[in-house]
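Treating backbone geometry as a discrete language has practical consequences that deserve illustration. The amino acid sequence and the backbone structure tokens for this protein are reproduced below.
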Amino acid sequence: MASDSELSEFLKNMEKKAFKRAYYHVRNEDAALDILQDSMIKLCTNYADKPVAELPLLFQRILSNTMLDWFRRQKTRNALFTNLSDFNSGDGDGDFDLLEVTANTSGDASSESAEQWVDRLQTLEHIETAVMALPPRQREAFLLRYSEELDVAETAAVMGCSEGSVKTHCSRAIQALSKTLGTQGIRP
């Protein structure tokens, strides 16, 4: 059974990755934050009595189901109502902030020139755009396997599909990313 401090620490460690995953799926910062919050509440409410070792897979599954619920609600809402503000160009408030993401990954910033920093930032933007352009199941499999570092069996459990499907989705995602990024001059 996870203690309150262990559960709190687990959620703190999962917060950024889970937000990023939700944002990649829904492409709306506010919705991604709502999904993340709902998932965390569901985990704490329904599964706080589980061992700490079981929490990562439970949380990933809860997050996936919460995102599916969000898409179902959106589909119903869009079928009934048209939100005219969706057609406005917007002022960019919902943009994902890459500076926040890269701030934690830059090791020794003093040894990196401004040109290298800009190149790295542009590369990350190209990669993010390419990942967001993947079909939903490929994107989910790719992010779970390589961002969340789950193995094939764990990814299959989270996605609710077979291990073979996970391997197929990941393979196709890697091929699509390689092709897309290769045309932009980005090589591994």
Summary: Residues 126 and 141 are 19 Å apart (CA to CA). Confidence is low (pLDDT under 50) at residues 82-91. Helices lie at 4-26, 29-47, 55-80, 98-105, 114-132, 136-147, 152-159, 163-183.
